[in-house]
Amino acid sequence: MLRKIALASLCFLALTHSQQVGKEVTETHPRLPFQKCTRSGCTNVSNGQVVLDANWRWLHVTDGFTNCYTGNSWNTSVCSSGTQCAQRCALEGANYQKTYGITTSGNALTIKFLTKDSQTNVGGRVYLMDSDTRYHMFQLLNQEFTFDVDVSKIPCGINGALYFIQMDADGGMSKHSGNKAGAKYGTGYCDSQCPRDMKFISGEGNAQGWTPSPSDPNAGTGTYGACCAEMDIWEANSMSSAYTPHPCRTPNDGGYYRCTGQECNQPRYEGVCDPDGCDYNPFRQGVRDFYGPGKTIDTNKKITVVTQFITDNNSSSGTLVEIRRVWVQDGRVIQNPPTNFPGLMEPYDSLTNQFCDDQKRIFEDNPSFQRNGGMAAMGRSLAKGHVLALSIWNDHTANMLWLDSSYPVDADPNKPGIARGECPTTGGKPKDTEQNHPDAQVIFSNIRYGDIGTTYTAG
């Protein structure tokens, strides 16, 4: 899916990855307990906490307060090469609540869409950790992952996302000598879009060839991108939701890879990762009454979301063959709804290679999922361990229409696969979402994972 491009943030507190560490603000991670479950029960993973992505942090010179990056441009008087920027620029600690609207309470994490302090911050992304310096690495084959979520305050055009990416546990610190900040400061982001808006990639500044965005005053693109495999567990607002695997053909079975040129999906579908994935959005699958305010899954209320990763031999050493979704609300276990295109598509209710083959054919979508290895490649990536990212964002590229409206906008919405939600095709513009929905927020809570059937109950 289109996403995670040009995430808007601070103007004065420059948006960027840093590799040196500043000394002005002490970095203190908000605590967020989560659980590992077995047949014997669930136990807390020690020292659970979250860290703010480095792309939101203040980046300034190591010996003062001059910004290394302001608005959507690098300060070329400070540095003009990747090595110089890594050497001369420092990443500061974060005031999570005051500046970024990120808070935790018990096992719940709240991320506000818009936070006004001395400046205005839009959106946010954090990663789950099990120590001050390492991201927690989730092993998901033959396991299930469960969380509770409240999307009641997320309207059209905004995405409260929870997803896994094959990042390095230390944020790339051991692999890249220029990275002195590491996971403690949220470095090392990558995803299947091979984003080129990351200011630091592989321990170096992405200043070479940097081009400011024509639509986002806080973002731009550089020569390099950061690729890795991605498993979207939850891309959603109160109107629509989807879950989507995105395999890659990078080294290490989808691991972190610095791309350039065509490798970065320039043009789209020609790179080393699958940008679209194979998605299951109930509305897009023809089930219009399942998810939304007052529907079977009522988004006015908290939802429990379960995702199961099923292998061919029911073990962690097997090949991934199915990704299944289960819902729990008001004490009821609710199965994922089957596809509703009679005569066109079998009534599938989960992601499998056969579902993806049929979906791509009927929707006339690009088969990039299959070309990048399909379920087996996604499984090999998951076996390497993934980092959990949690975020809220708006979309400067496609106004989030690919998630919650009819997309492409010039296609017949009655054609299978075009209608993805009930939001208007004229909506979702970042300026409108920021002006009209400053109180939007997402709440993730009660995160747990473990043996299939152990992380949720009815009643």
TrEMBL record:
Keywords: Carbohydrate metabolism, Cellulose degradation, Glycosidase, Hydrolase, Polysaccharide degradation, Signal. One of its GO terms (biological process) is cellulose catabolic process. Residues 416-436 are annotated as: Disordered. It catalyses: Hydrolysis of (1->4)-beta-D-glucosidic linkages in cellulose and cellotetraose, releasing cellobiose from the non-reducing ends of the chains. GO terms for molecular function: cellulose 1,4-beta-cellobiosidase activity. Its EC number is 3.2.1.-. It holds the Pfam family Glyco_hydro_7. Residues 1-18 form the signal peptide. Belongs to the glycosyl hydrolase 7 (cellulase C) family. This is Glucanase.
